[in-house]
Amino acid sequence: MTVRLLDFHADWCGPCKTQDPILEEIQEDLGDAFKLQKVNVDEEQDVANQYQVRSLPTLIVENDDGVVDRFVGVTQREDIEAALSEAGA
């Protein structure tokens, strides 16, 4: 099963810069268990609209069955890891 973590962000978003190191740590620790896909909403508005992203940062955890969890705002590592685990990572 493929597990993806979509990180919707923008260069001008201060909270997004706070979220980045948390995501980098998770990716280092979990490695290939999931795929991190960074989506710059200014460059990929169609993808942001598809997922109905209205606030930044927004994190969406999905697997082959669809969206498992969604977080809006800076999210703590434990919550992200729990969602990734629930999705099958």
UniProtKB/TrEMBL annotation:
Pfam families for this protein: Thioredoxin
Keyword Disulfide bond: yes
Cystine bridges: 13-16
GO molecular function: protein-disulfide reductase activity
Residue stretches making up the Thioredoxin domain: 1-89
UniProt xrefs under PROSITE patterns: THIOREDOXIN_1 (PS00194), THIOREDOXIN_2 (PS51352)
GO cellular component: cytoplasm
Contributes to redox potential value, annotated site positions: 14-15
The entry's keywords: Disulfide bond, Electron transport, Redox-active center, Transport
Active site positions: 13, 16
Residue numbers marked as site, Deprotonates C-terminal active site Cys: 7
Domain of life: Archaea
Protein's name according to its UniProt entry: Thioredoxin
Organism: Halorubrum saccharovorum
